[in-house]
Amino acid sequence: MKQRIITGIIFTMVILAFSIPGFFYAGFIIALTALVTILSTQELVSALQQKGIKNFRYLAYVGVSIAFIPVVMKFMLSSPYVAFSIYAMSILMFSLIAVILPSIFSVSENKIVDGIAAAGVSIYISFPIACANIAVLYVNDGWYYFALGLLSPWISDVFAYFTGVMIGKHKIVPHISPKKTWEGCIGGAIGCSVIVSLYFSFVIYRFTEVKLPFLTVVVASAAVGLLLSVVSQLGDWMASALKRWAGIKDFGSILPGHGGIMDRFDSVFFTLPIALAFGILLT
User: Fold this and answer.
1) Taking burial as the number of CB atoms within 10 A of a residue's CB, which of 71, 182, 226, 279 is the most buried?
2) How many domains does the chain have?
3) Maximum distance among all alpha carbons in the chain?
4) What does DSSP assign to residue 131?
């Protein structure tokens, strides 16, 4: 437990070391997303290799790099809609090529599986990373929405943990996450909803250019808080299912007591797109 707490503190300090300066200069956020992309891809590729899917590592790295096309093209683009459309078309074309091309030049089933694995890893990681990059580069006051997507899963986890410890009895997905309970899930959702609503009321509404009436923002943000909690827990369950399928306990060991980067960002990957969408709708 002591090691877990120390690692958690250091991890939080590192995230803040990128995120806080990122409020003033988006390059810090891009550096953070690049670091997360590289480490997460390495861990996810290694997990799939445990199941005998071997020859797709380099193709996967090419695929996840598509998340940074909006960064490279910032000098000629200004609309988040256009930036996202370019990313979406690029990752779609890459995925089709990755799956179809091996079947053209080889009838080996392993080649097709490698292509599917490369496409899957690329979409899984590049989609939320692209959303984070687009938020901070293209959305007005996008840093606030990036912070929302980054922090909401951890807020939900804290409320879910304490609620589950105090009153949790009914298991929700015991075959995937034996400790998760319905009570914890509901507590996490309510807690996240309250905090997100307060965040919008006292931070985003006050310091950004939100044009909607205050009451509308409060109600909408409470609903978004519920949604963020639900999707963050879905992300956690999906990662747990992948780990069980691969026969591993954690995706990595870079964070002693916590696992790997994927173990910390599995839920964040699901909330960043929601945060981007909400930021675009409000600005």
Assistant:
1) 279
2) 1
3) 60
4) H
